[in-house]
Amino acid sequence: MTGRHTLASTHIGVAIAAFAVASAMGVLQALSVADVEFPRRSESLYYVSLTAHGVLMALVFTTFFIMGLGYVLAQECLGRITGRLGAWIAFALAAVGSVMAAVTILRGQSTVLYTFYPPMQAHPLFYIGATLLVVGSWIWGGVMIASYRSWRREHPGVPVPLSIHGMLAAVIVWYLATAGLAAEVLGMLIPWSLGMVDKVDPLVARTLFWWFGHPLVYFWLLPAYVLWYTVLPQVAGGRLFSDRLARMVFILFVVLSTPVGFHHQFSDPGISSGWKLAHTVLTYGVLYPSLVTAFTVIASLEVAGRMKGAKGLFDWIGRLPWSDPFFACIALAMIAFTFGGFGGAINAAYAMNTMVHNTAWIQGHFHVTLGTTVALSFMGATYWLLPRMLGRELRFRGLARVQPYLWFLGMALFSTSYHLAGLRGLPRRVYSASLTGEYGEAWHGLTKVAAAGGTILFLSALAFVTVVLATWVAGKKISPPAFEFAVSLRPATALTLWDRFGMWTVVAVVLLAVAYGYPLIHLLSQQRWGSPAFQPF
Amino acid sequence: MNVELYERIWMWAAAGLIVMFLGAIFLTAGLQAVQPPSHLETMDPTALIHYPEFANPAVVTRPDGSLVVSVVAETYAFTPDPIEVPANRPVTFRVTSSDVVHGFEIVGTNANAMAIPGYVSQFTVTFTKPGEYVIACHEYCGILHHGMVGKLIVK
What we know:
The complex is a heterodimer. By secondary structure, chain A is mainly alpha-helical. Chain A is built from 17 helices and no strands. Chain A has helices at residues 6-33, 43-78, 84-106, 124-154, 162-193, 202-230, 232-236, 243-256, 273-285, 287-307, 315-318, 325-347, 350-356, 360-390, 397-423, 437-474, 501-524. Chain A is globular. Chain A starts with 5 loop residues before the first helix and ends in a 13-residue tail after the last helix. By secondary structure, chain B is an alpha+beta fold. In chain B, 20% of the residues lie in helices and 34% in strands. Chain B has helices at residues 5-31, 52-55, and strands at residues 59-61, 67-74, 77-79, 83-85, 90-97, 102-106, 112-115, 121-126, 131-136, 149-154. Chains A and B meet through helix 2, helix 6, helix 8, helix 9 and helix 10 of A and helix 1 and strand 7 of B.
């Protein structure tokens, strides 16, 4: 049945290409910060590679991968992709946009990092390219919704497959999140970079950016959760513990994902402590669905172990398929997320946040959460998808078995040392951590360990890309294995409150309007002068 | 909804954990006035010269006896540098930027804020340990960002 998944496999191919380039950029940074000399090491290379790594990993790799995964699931679980032509137009827009942005970055014209805080100004094509990527993803969301609606008309009263339920939640989170980004980029940065307006307000821009920036994280996480809930128990040979609670979890993300951005702005002036506290409460609220997920997914794995005859309290752990590349990726991703989750709870408390704000701790944190939880889940998904999408057997299976463990080891070294260096005040995003004195010494030693971790991560990325490439071009042709999704111990049989996406979207929009409306109106009503543009170099 | 017993226990425990976390934050906010820097004061970042306080930023003792340090962050330096303050006395920092977004972190203390052009970050810290501290810019601000450091001397 090749051809059926061309749309999906094209997206995933682009995602992995972006990942490959971004990984090469990553190792350069880890070495540079640790003062390990390599040819052409320089400040400009460091900051260019930092921008490229961030944009390609956080925006291009994730967005294309999620779009591709969405198409696979729509095809397999709904039996359709409604609006294929639109989907291809979306792909073209997103691909052209990504290339535009990437070219201006690699040419050194847009070294503004993936947060692109004004008044540091990038080339107009950077902002326009990023916009096209987002517009492409908006069309993708429309195709997902259209596919769902078409299915719904034929299946009244039946709960939609859980994987689609989760993807729809991701689509809604994405629309809510990118509303803030659109306001920032279309309303402020593009006219400003084209010289149509002289000045922009940096704080308003930051606020709109973080309106987008944190829910962006949940946009990545929800598709990973879809894999954990609907594929992992199947691969492990078990059952999904509870379908109904999974639906609740996804809906809670729809409601609570967006109004949380102020926890990135605890150290910013101009936002009252009361509103910062309000966002803190919602941030802790969004911890809840993740804690519930931890139970359900681990319980599902225990079911798998026991179905294979495990006895006693922990015997089931050993009976899980740890040598299966998909399983290993996801299981390690979940272990990393435990640490990432508790680090996140620390960041969200502003007394503790003060100790770590903008230090290397933050880099350590998002490399366990996103760099491991999300990236490793997507790598695992790739191993699962390739044979099914392409009808080819995985090449270099041994390499694919080792790769997740290598990634986990590399990240453990990298992330732990960055967490520790951050506690000792090492600022994030520095070309070199060389500083004399007590702190400098501590920083320097830790960045060396991180550089070793970064090197291992690069080797792991290389292994992953090798397996993918080899499979794609030279994998043995097979009849594609079936896409099988986990059966629930307690399946959802009728529609409930948690299936009412329209209603929950309204709740989310109201909450968002309250959480951002007043602080933004208050800020905009002040006398403000704005800032002219500065080029980083 | 059909929820298993263990699952229900876990869900209550998770909710309890979150309530505990939030309780700690509310308590410190209420009883110890632990608040993030949230001062709202705007100015023209391209004309700091017209604001006496930031035209010549310095350590100043106000008529009411309070100690105020005004700081301008600018690529790639902090003014004044070094900053000298006494130990065991509340010091109010007022930090702004004349160009791009910078960070203001006094390494090893809990002084940590953003310097955003057009706005003043204001917060109060008491340093208990005399010595020299590094002030680091922790927001990327251009090609020499990593070299943007200042010094704080606590006497």
